[in-house]
Amino acid sequence: MVEKLVSNMLMIDGEDQILKHWQHGTGALVIDRKDISSKITESPWPNDYPVTFRSMTKRKEIWKCWKTGRPFYYVDNGYMGNLDKKKKWYRVVKNNIQHVKLPLFRGGKWPNDRFTNLVQTTPYMTYTGRQPDSNREGAILVVTPSDKPCQFYQIDRQTWLEQTLAEIKNHTSRPIIIRDKGLRPDRIKDNSIAGQCHRQRIHSLVTYQSVAALEALHYGIPVFTMAPCCADPYANKDLSLIESAKYPNEEDVMNLFNFLAYCQYTLEEFASGDALRMIEEFKL
Fold first, then answer.
1. Which CATH class is domain 124-259?
2. What is the torsion angle, in degrees rounded to the nearest 10, for the CA atoms of residue 132, residue 133, residue 137 and residue 142?
3. For the chain, which residues make up each domain, given as ranges?
4. Strands 264-265 and 223-225
5. In the chain, what is the straight-line distance between the N-terminal and C-terminal CA atoms, in Å?
6. pTM, full prediction
7. pLDDT tens digit string along 52-89?
């Protein structure tokens, strides 16, 4: 039973329609966000009581939990499979905002059952491996951070962009295409990262910490990330290597997708408690 896995679960924002499903499956008690984030008063809740919240707008809560050591469950959009009109998957990250490390599954590779199920409902998620060089003769695609990560990591978007473009130009003469996050209709279906990479024969993708890096990795081109990101296990970090960027072994990439499929859940899995059960059982 879930209540035996995590006791005394707290939650912020009981009116959130996504978190209501999580509350149903975990028995979380809704509290005022100030009880966790206040800089002035101590929290009335014991520090070993975990708290759940959604969105990077809860940055003050995240910072306070990191400072005090309170465990938390961060909820946001899923990593994969949400490129249709309606979202189906939501990630839950314990004590972070993305899964940035690739652990072993009982000493080995992660099973493919959840990713296989994902592909059955979203066929575009079928992984076809690394793109041949003939398909990536074009520009460098730079995906800029939106306001939320800029505020969370306390960076200035324009400064980051200018510095990143200057560094890229030091190491390649390829054209550079800048892509801002935009509204959801501008990022799904034919407007997805994979769609743009295919149309414009993108050579590689550079971003701060956007899930766009994972989408480009799935499409089959090298990626560069500057901040902690779910693609980090196989992302490049040194922009001086932009022309010789590495793409990982396809079996390793598949293992990352299999792992991340265990880190995202449907609302039904939230409500049944299966999401929390998997998180605790597999130490996700």
1. alpha beta
2. 70
3. 2-99+264-281, 124-259
4. unpaired
5. 18
6. 0.94
7. 999 999 999 999 999 999 999 999 999 999 988 789 99
